[in-house]
Amino acid sequence: MLSTADHTTERPPYAAWLRSTNNITQQFLSLGNRPDVISMAGGLPASELYPVAAVEEATRAALARWGSQALEYGPVEGLPALRDAIAARISAATDGLFTRENILLTTGAMQGLDLIGKVLLDPGDLVVAQFPTYLGALDAWRPRAPRYARLDWTLGEPGFAETLRAAKFVYAVPNYSNPTGVLVPQQGRRALLEAVVAAGTWLVEDDPYLPLQLDGSAGPSILAHDRAARGTERYDGPVLYLGTLSKSLVPGLRVGWVVAEPKIIQMLALAKQSTDLSSSVFTQSVALSLIEGTVEREQVARTVAAYRARRDALCAAAAASLSPWFEWEVPPGGMFVWMRATHPGIDTNALYAHALAENVTFVPSSVFDPSGELRTAMRLNFTRNPPDVLAEGVRRLERAVRRYLAA
Amino acid sequence: MLSTADHTTERPPYAAWLRSTNNITQQFLSLGNRPDVISMAGGLPASELYPVAAVEEATRAALARWGSQALEYGPVEGLPALRDAIAARISAATDGLFTRENILLTTGAMQGLDLIGKVLLDPGDLVVAQFPTYLGALDAWRPRAPRYARLDWTLGEPGFAETLRAAKFVYAVPNYSNPTGVLVPQQGRRALLEAVVAAGTWLVEDDPYLPLQLDGSAGPSILAHDRAARGTERYDGPVLYLGTLSKSLVPGLRVGWVVAEPKIIQMLALAKQSTDLSSSVFTQSVALSLIEGTVEREQVARTVAAYRARRDALCAAAAASLSPWFEWEVPPGGMFVWMRATHPGIDTNALYAHALAENVTFVPSSVFDPSGELRTAMRLNFTRNPPDVLAEGVRRLERAVRRYLAA
Q1: How far is B24 from A273, CA to CA, in rounded Å?
Q2: Which of A11, A68, A69 sits opposite B201 (nearest CB)?
Q3: For FRET with B95, which of A23, A122, B68, B105 sits at 20 to 30 Å CA-CA?
Q4: Which residues of chain A are within 8 Å of residue B279 when distances are taken between CB atoms?
Q5: Residue A251 is nearest to which of B73, B246, B250, comparing CB atoms?
C-alpha cells in the first residue's frame, strides 16, 4: 500500500482512489532497472532495433514540410494529415470508409484508455473486461472507480447478456492479449460483436500488438467485422479501436490513436483538451514522415524476425527448465508468454521475491486481476532481451522456483 | 450545451461531467480559424518567431547524444537529465535546493493541472481559485467535480481563513494572470503564502507567463518565498509550481513541469503513468539541447520585444476605439489585455456574435467564471497577430460594439 499517511506536514489528503490503491505495478517494474537483473517484467521493445537515423531524417523532412506549424499547439484532435493517413490505414484494413472525423490522435494508445474512462465512466459504472486484464487499462480507469465483470468469450455464462446491457463498455484485446498472448479466434470476435450490438453497449478494442504477428495473420479486427456488418457508410458503430506506433516504430514518439464514430471522437477530444491541450504536433509530423515511406514496413519486418527468435528461445529454455511447475502456450504474436502454475504450491506474488534474489524479474498475475486475487500465473516478456539473455533468465527462474518450493 | 442525447444508436450515456458541461470553449476557439477572421481569442504565440532551424539542429544533437534512448518509453517522471536541468533552473530562481526528485515533466503545464486534479480532488472538494480563473484549469478539473471559492488576494474577507482550511488547494497565477494580465504584488504573494501555510493546505502556483516580462521584472515567485522561509533543505513545502517551455521556446514540444515536494511528485507520477505511461522522451531530449545552449535566451529576447510592440499597438488602438465602453490596464507581461465594460448595456457573451459578424473574435469573460455568470469583460490576445492586424481587429471590435448597442 502507498504510505499516504506520512505527509511532510499536515496537508489535505490525496484523492480516494490513491488512498485505496497500491503501487505494486511501479514496485514490480522499477526493480527491473538494476544492471545485474534480467528483466522479463516490462513490456518493452528491443531498443537496439530502433531506426534512429530514420527518425533524424524524418525530422528534417517534417520540419522542411511543415515549418513552424510542426511546433504549434494542436489541433487537439491531432495533425490533420496524420489523421488522414491513419484513417486511410484503417479503411484499408477494414475495407471500409474511415475519415479524419473518425480519428483522434493520442499520447500513445494509453492516453486513449484514460480518455475513454473520462468520457464514459462514473464511479460504480460497470466495465466488462477480458480476464486477466492489461494492467494499464486497470490503472487508467482506477481514478474513475468502475466495477468489473469478466468478459466470457464463450458467451455461455448465465446472465452474461444482462451483464453486457448493464455495462458502460466491454474491454477486449483480441490480438495477442496482454498478458496472455492469446489470439482470439474470428468466431469469438463475431459472437462478441453480435452480443455487444444486441446489448447496445460500447466495445473498446485495444490493438497495440497488431504489428507483432509472429506466426501467420491475425485476421480481421472486431472493428472490421462491425464495419462489414454496417455497409459502406462512414463508420458509426459502437467499437472504439485503439492503435499505436509504439510497437511498429518506436514508443518514444508517443503516437497512438482512437478510431470511433465521430460523435464520441468529439467527446474524447473535449476530454483531451482538458487533459493536455494537445499532443505534440512535432512528433506527429515526424511520425507521418516515417509511415509515408518504407521505414515502418522495414522496421516491422526486422522486429518480427527478432521477436520470433526471442520467443522461441524463451519457450525452448522454459521447456527445459520450467515445465515441471508451469504450462503455457507458445504465443502466435505479441510480446509475452503467459505461464500458469501447474504445481499447487506456487503463489507467483511470493515467487517474485525469490526471483529477485536470483536477479531475474517477471510480472505476477495478481496485477492483471481487478481484485488482485489471481496468484497462480506469471507474465514473461520476450522482446526486450536477446535469446542468450532470455535463456539465462529462465535458468535463474528455475533456481528461484526450486528455492521457493524448498523454503 | 452539448447535444449528448442524439447518440447514433442507443448506447450508454457519457460520464456525468460531460452531460453537465458545455463546449463553449471549443466553440469560441474553433471559430477563430477562418482566414478572414482576426482572432484575438486564443492564447497562441507568434509562430513566425519559432526557431525552426534550431529545433532541427537540437534534434540532431539529441539523437547523437542519446541514440535509441531518446526513442524509448519514459521514465514516467521524464528524462532525468532534463529534470536535473529544470531543478537547477528552479534552484537558481529561488536561491534554493531543488533536485530531480522535486520535478515531474509533463505534456505542457496543462497536464500538470490534470494530474493535480487526479491526485487531490474528489467530487465536491473545494478549490480556492484566483478569480477570474484560467479556463484550462476549470476544464482540467471538471471531471473531478470540485466546488470553487474565490481567492481574495486582500485576505480581508470574513471567513477566508476557514475557507482556506476547508480547501484541497489554492490555485493562483501571480505572474500576468490569464485572463487579466495582472502581476500580483510581492506583498500579496507573501500574505497568501502565510495564510496557506497557516491553513495547512496546498498552493498551486501556475507560472506559464514568467518568460513574458514586458515591463521590468516579475519578482520572486511564491515558491521562492516559501523556499526562503524554509531554509536550505531540499524543498518540502506546500507549493506545487507549474512551468513550461511553451512560451519561452515553442508549444509543440509539449514540455512542461511540476515542481513540488518529493512525495506528491511520486503521487503525480503514479497518476501520470495511468494517464499516458510517459511523455515523449524524444521531445524532452530535444528540449534539453535547446535550453542548454543559447537558443531559449535569444528566443525569449526576440519574443518579448515583439510582444511588447504588439501589446502597445493593441492598447493604442483600443484607446482610440474602445474607451467609450471599456476600461483596462496595460498588462506588464503575458499575452492578454482584460477589458472590463464600463457601459452597463454590454454583455460580452452577446457581443461575441456581433464580433463574429465583423470577422473578429475575443474570449468572453463567462468562460473564466466557474459559474459562467461573469459577462461584463473580454480577453484580448495580443501575441498572435502583428501590430497592424491587431489595430484592424480593434477597429472591427469597435464596429461590433456599435452594431450590438444599436441592435
Answers
A1: 13
A2: A11
A3: B105
A4: 107, 254
A5: B73
Q: Find the DSSP H helices in A277-383.
A: 281-292, 295-321, 348-357
| Domain spans, chain A | 16-50+298-406, 68-296
Residue B274: which of A48, A68, A140 has the nearest Cβ?
A: A140
- Could you say which of A69, A71, A274 has the minimum Cβ distance to residue B114? A274
Which of the listed CATH numbers 2.60.120.260, 3.40.50.2300, 3.50.50.60, 3.90.1150.10 matches domain B16-50+297-406? 3.90.1150.10
Q: Which CATH class is domain A16-50+298-406?
A: alpha beta
Evaluate whether A16-50+298-406 and A68-296 have a shared fold.
no
Return the sign of the alpha-carbon dihedral for residues B121, B124, B126, B130. Answer: positive
Cell matching residue A267: 467527446
A274 with B143: Cβ contact below 8 A: yes
Query: Taking chain A, what is the end-to-end CA distance rounded to the nearest angstrom?
Result: 26
Directed axis angle between helix A52-66 and helix A281-292, to 10°?
110
Chain A residues within 8 A of B271 when measuring between CB atoms: 18, 143
Task: Domain B71-293: state its class.
Answer: alpha beta
Chain B hits for A203, CB-CB cut-off 8 Å, are none
Residue A128 C-alpha, separation from nearest chain B C-alpha, in angstroms: 13
Q: Is A276's CB within 8 Å of B139's CB?
A: no
Whole-prediction pTM: 0.95
Q: Distance, in angstroms, between A404 CA and closest chain B CA?
A: 31
- CB–CB of B304/B380 below 8 Å? no
pLDDT, mean over chain B: 94
Could you name the CATH architecture of A68-296? 3-Layer(aba) Sandwich (3.40)
Q: What percent of chain B has pLDDT over 70?
A: 94
Nearest CA in chain A to B108: A276
pLDDT for position B1: 34
Out of A10, A119, A250, closest to residue B18 by CB = A119
- Say how many CB pairs under 8 Å bridge A and B: 227
Q: Kindly give the residue spans of alpha helices, DSSP state H, lying in B151-234.
A: 160-166, 186-199, 222-230
- Interface contact A280-B12, CB threshold 8 A: no
Contacts with A381 from chain B: Cβ below 8 Å = none
Distance from CA of A250 to the nearest CA of B (A): 6
Cell 467609450, located at residue:
B324
**pLDDT tens, N- to C-terminus, chain B (407 residues):** 333 333 445 799 999 998 766 566 666 556 656 789 999 998 999 999 999 999 999 999 999 999 999 999 989 999 999 999 999 999 999 999 999 999 999 999 999 999 999 999 999 999 999 999 999 999 999 999 999 999 988 888 899 999 999 999 999 999 999 999 999 999 999 999 999 999 999 999 999 999 999 999 999 999 999 999 998 789 999 999 999 999 999 999 999 999 999 999 999 999 999 999 999 999 999 999 999 999 999 999 999 999 999 999 999 999 999 999 999 999 999 999 999 999 999 999 999 999 999 999 999 999 999 999 999 999 999 999 999 999 999 999 999 999 999 98
- Smallest Cα distance from B321 to chain A, Å: 31
Q: In Å, what is the CA distance from B17 to each residue of A282, B326, B371, B380?
A: 31, 35, 14, 29
The radius of gyration of chain B from alpha carbons, rounded to an integer in Å, stands at: 21
Q: Across the interface, do A71 and B52 touch by the CB < 8 Å criterion?
A: yes
Closest chain A residue to B106 measured between Cα atoms? A276
Report the run of H or E that residue A392 belongs to, with start and end: helix A387-406
CA distances from A49 to A54, A294, B46, B71, B373 (A): 12, 15, 39, 11, 56
What whole-number distance in Å separates Cα of residue A393 and Cα of residue B298? 51
Q: Quick one: closest CA in A to B66, which residue?
A: A52
Inter-chain CB proximity A282 and B118 less than 8 Å: no
